[in-house]
Write a structure and sequence with these properties.
Blueprint lengths: L7 E5 L20 E2 L2 E2 H11 L4 E6 L4 H6 L4 H9 L18 E4 L6 H6 L2 H4 L4 E4 L3 E4 L2 H12 L2 E7 L9 E9 L2 E9 L9 E2 L3 E4 L2 H6 L12 H6 L7 E5 L3 E4 L3 H13 L5 H11 L2
Parallel strand pairs: 1-4, 1-6, 4-5, 8-13
Antiparallel strand pairs: 2-3, 6-12, 7-14, 8-11, 8-12, 9-10, 10-13
Helix pairs in contact: 9-10
Catalytic activity: alpha-D-glucose 1-phosphate + UTP + H(+) = UDP-alpha-D-glucose + diphosphate
Organism: Sphingomonas pseudosanguinis
Pfam family, one: NTP_transferase
Length: about 290
C-alpha cells in the first residue's frame, strides 16, 4: 500500500464567534490572542511543524484581519526597522507565496460544508483539518502525521475525557488498540446513556479525499447542518480508520472559560511573564 504524504491542511475559519460577542463583532474569533499570539497562528504553526506545505483557509465575510496577519505589513516593518527594533517577533508568520490559499464559505452550513468548500484545492490528496478553537500544546498534528505514515487511511484525533462528559462530544467506538492508535468502528455524536468509549474527537483530522465525494451529496445532519462526522462515518469499513490519542494539553478556546484558562496556563509557562502571572494568581486564592 502506497501512503501519500499529507501536504495540505484545511482551516475552517468562517464562524461568526457569537459566544465571544461583543469582542468578535468586528474581529475574527480566530484572532483572539492567547498571551500574545492569535489562535489561528498557534494552529498554523502546529500544521507547519507537522510538515504541511500548503495552508488553506475557508473564510467568510469580515475575516480580513486574519488574512492580513499572514501577509507582509510594510508600515509596521518599516517603522520597526527605522527605530532599530528587532523583527524577530514576526519571524515565520508570513507564509511563502501561494500559501495560504483562501476560499469562501458563503453560508454557515456546517463543518462538513466548510471542508467541502476546499475540495478543488485539496484535489486527490489526503489532507489535514485543524479547528483553531481547539488549542493543542504538544505537537499533536506532527504526532498524527507520524502515525498516519505508518497506517495510512484516515486518522482522527482522540482525547480521553471523563465518562460524565461524553454526551458533549463526538465519541469513537473503538476496535483494536495498538499503543496510542485505536481502530475506529463507528462514530457516535453526543451519545445519550452509556457511551462506547471515553475517546472524544478534539478537532484534528487527517482524511482521504474520498470524504469530499460523500460531502458532495450535501446531506444535512444534526442541527440541519452538513456534518463532517456523518461523512467520515461512511468511510469506516471502506478505508483504514484510526483514532490517535493525544498526550499533550488541550484548551477549548471556543469557550470563554477555556480561553481564559489557556491564557493563564501558557502565561505561567513563559519565562518573561510567568513569575508575575504566578504571583498574581496566588493573590486570587489567598
Amino acid at each position: 500500500m502506497t501512503i501519500k504524504k499529507v501536504r495540505k491542511a484545511v482551516f475552517p475559519v468562517a464562524g461568526l464567534g457569537t459566544r465571544f460577542l461583543p469582542a468578535t463583532k468586528a474581529m475574527p474569533k480566530e484572532m483572539l490572542t492567547v498571551v500574545d499570539k492569535p489562535l489561528i497562528q498557534y494552529a498554523v504553526e502546529e500544521a507547519l511543524e507537522a510538515g504541511i506545505e500548503q495552508i488553506i483557509f475557508v473564510t467568510g465575510r469580515g475575516k480580513g484581519a486574519l488574512e492580513d496577519h499572514f501577509d507582509i505589513s510594510y508600515e509596521l516593518e518599516a517603522t520597526m526597522k527605522a527605530r532599530g527594533k528587532s523583527l524577530a517577533v514576526l519571524d515565520g508568520i508570513r507564509q511563502k507565496p501561494g500559501s495560504p490559499v483562501y476560499v469562501r464559505q458563503q453560508e454557515p452550513l456546517g463543518l462538513g460544508h466548510a471542508v467541502w468548500c476546499a475540495r478543488e484545492i485539496v484535489g486527490d490528496e489526503p489532507f489535514a483539518v485543524l479547528l483553531p478553537d481547539e488549542l493543542m500544546v504538544g505537537g499533536f498534528m506532527k504526532q498524527m502525521v507520524e502515525a498516519y505514515d505508518q497506517v495510512g487511511g484516515n486518522v482522527i484525533g482522540a482525547l480521553e475525557v471523563p465518562d460524565s462528559e461524553t454526551d458533549k462530544y463526538g465519541i469513537i467506538s473503538p476496535g483494536k488498540q495498538d499503543g496510542r492508535l485505536t481502530e475506529v468502528t463507528a462514530l457516535v455524536e453526543k451519545p445519550k446513556g452509556k457511551a462506547p468509549s471515553n475517546l472524544m474527537i478534539p478537532g484534528r483530522y487527517i482524511l482521504q479525499p474520498e470524504v469530499m465525494d460523500i460531502l458532495d451529496a450535501q446531506e444535512p445532519g444534526a442541527g440541519g447542518e452538513i456534518q463532517l462526522t456523518d461523512a467520515m462515518a461512511k468511510l469506516i469499513g471502506k478505508q483504514p480508520f484510526h483514532g490517535f490519542t493525544f498526550d499533550g494539553q488541550r484548551y477549548d478556546c471556543g469557550d470563554k472559560a477555556g480561553w481564559l484558562t489557556a491564557n493563564l496556563a501558557l502565561g505561567v509557562a513563559r519565562d518573561d511573564i510567568g513569575p508575575a502571572v504566578r504571583e498574581f494568581a496566588k493573590t486570587l486564592f489567598a
